[in-house]
């Protein structure tokens, strides 16, 4: 179950952005979001 969740978490941004540049922006946005939690 944990593995499926991680796979979905990694696959969603790739499906949403469609480009390497878009993926980089998504990763950067996600890291800022997680950083704001702490």
TrEMBL record:
Secretion signal span: 1-18
UniProt keyword Signal, yes or no: yes
Key words, A-Z: Signal
Name the UniProt record assigns to this protein: Entericidin EcnA/B family protein
Species of origin: Alloyangia mangrovi
């Amino acid at each position: 179950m944990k593995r499926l969740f991680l796979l979905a978490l990694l696959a969603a941004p790739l499906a949403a952005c469609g480009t390497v540049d878009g993926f980089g922006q998504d990763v950067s946005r996600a890291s800022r979001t997680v950083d704001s939690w702490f």
